[in-house]
Model the fold of this input.
Amino acid sequence: MIQEDKLIERAQEGDQEAFCLLARSYQRRIYALALHYTRDPHEAEDLSQEVWLKAYQAIGGFRGEAGFYTWLRRITVNTFLNHQRAMKTMYSSGKKAFRLGELVSLDELGLAPAEPRQAPEERLQQQMMVEKVMEGLGELTPQQRLIFLLKHREGMTYDEIARSCAVSTGTVKKALFRAINRLREYLGVKLSAAEDVSYAARERR
Amino acid sequence: MHDCVKTRELLVDLVFDELGPEAGRRALLELEGCPDCQAQYRSMTEALRVFDQVTDTAMPEESYWPGYETRLRERLRTERPGWTLRLADWIGGFHPLMMRPLVAVGLALALLAVGWWTWQRRQAVGPSPGALDVATETPTPQPKVESHDEVVAKTAKPGEISKIRTAVHPAVHPTVRLAAAKSNGKAPSVRREERVRKIVEDVVVSRGSDQPLIAASLFTAETIRHFEKAQLMLRSFRNTSAAKRLAATDLAYERQLSRRLLYQNILLRRDAEMKGNLPAEEALSSLEPFLLDIANLPDNPSSGELGGIRERLQRKELIASLQISSAPTYQIP
Done:
C-alpha cells in the first residue's frame, strides 16, 4: 500500500490518480457528513464531490503542518458553510423533510440498508427510523446541524468548532443541546426511563 | 448540596466528553444522587447511541462506491487544476512548493516599493489642509501636545508665546497643529477612526471573548439599522416611563413604534433562523419580548407594569447590547 504522504506529493504534482487514491481513504467519512448535513443522498454526493474538487485545487498549498484529514476537514466545513449561504435563497420553506419517497430512491443509488437478507418489514422499519433521524436533524438550522456533526461524528472540541464556524463556544454548546433534544424527541427516547427506549429496532433484536 | 440546574448545564459537556477526567467523575457522582438528572443524562446518551445505530444503516452499500469514484474522476477530469499547478506546468515543471519563496520575495519587494513611493509622496505633499477639521472634532488629551506646549513656554518669554503660536501655520506639523488648537481654547483631539477603534476595543475587553466582532460581522445592514431604531425606542421608553408625571399619551409614540419594530423583528428573526445565523437569531429573540410588552401596553399603564419592563431592560442590559450589536465591525490589528 502506498503511503499517504507519497500520494499527497504525487497529487501536488498534478497526478490525478494519486489524488483519487487519496480520496478513496476518506470518501465515506466525508460523504457521511454530507449526508447528515444535507439529509439528501443526491445533494450529499454533490456536496462531498465538491469538497474533493476544492481539495484537488488546493492541494498544492498543503504544507503538512497538520494532518491531511484535518486539512481536508477544514475544506469540508468551509464548503458546507458556503453551501449554507448559497442555499439561503432556496431555503424558503425553512425545513426540508426527508420523505419516504426519497428513501425508496436510495435503492436506485445503491443506498439500501446494509443487510440485504432483512425482511421487507424490517427494512421498512429501519427506513422509518432513518426518516425520523433525518427529520430530527431537519428541525435544526444548518449551522446547528453542522456543529452537532462536527462534535459527535468528528469529535472536534468546542474551541475547534467555534473557530471553524466563527461562533462562540456558548453557541456551540447551545446548538449541541438543541440537537440532542431534537433527536431525543424524534427518536422517542423517554426522559423518565431512558432504558425503556421506544426504539422499535431494539425490540426486534 | 445538589443543584439540578447547575448539574444539567454540565450534561452536554459530560455527554460530549468535554469535561476533564476529574470533573467528569465528579459530575457522574453528582448524577447518582439525583434520579431526575440521571434520567436526563441517560436519555441524552441513549439518543446519541440510537442516532449512531440508525445513521449507520443510512450509509450506502459497497456497490455504490465504484460509481461514486467514477463520477468523481469524471468531475476531476473536466475541472481545471488549481492555479499553482497550472502555473507550475506553464513554467515547466517547477514544484509549487519551490515557487513559494520566489513569490514571497517578489511580494516583499513590491510592498517595499509601494511603501517607499508613499513615503516619498508624503514628504513632497505634506498633510492635507482638511485634516485640521477632522482632528479638532473631539477633545481628548494628547501627551505630545503637552510636551510641545511646555517647550514653547520654556523657550519663549511670556509675551512672545502668542506671537509664536500665531506665526506657526497649523498645517505644518500635526503636533504644532494640535498645540495651536489647544491654545485656541479647544482641546487637542484624535482621529475619528481611532476613537471608534477604542470603543470596539473596549467592547471586546468588556465582553471578554472573541464573540462581539464575529457576531457584529454576521448581522446584515438591515438588522443593524433595526437594532439602532430599537435602541432609540427603548431609550425613549425608559426615559419617558421614568418621568414622575406620566400622561397616558406619553407612551403612545413608543407603543406605535414598538408595533412596527415588532413586525420587523419577527421577519428578521425568521430570516436569521432560516439562514442559521445564530448570533442574529439570539439577539433578535432577546429583543422581541420587550417590543411585544411595550406594543401591548394599555392606554393607561400602571407604574408597576412600566417599572417591570424597565427593570428587565436594566437587568438584561439590552440597550447596551443593542448598541454593541449595531456598532460597526472593525478588525483590530
In short: Confidence is low (pLDDT under 50) at residues 91-115, 193-205 of chain A.
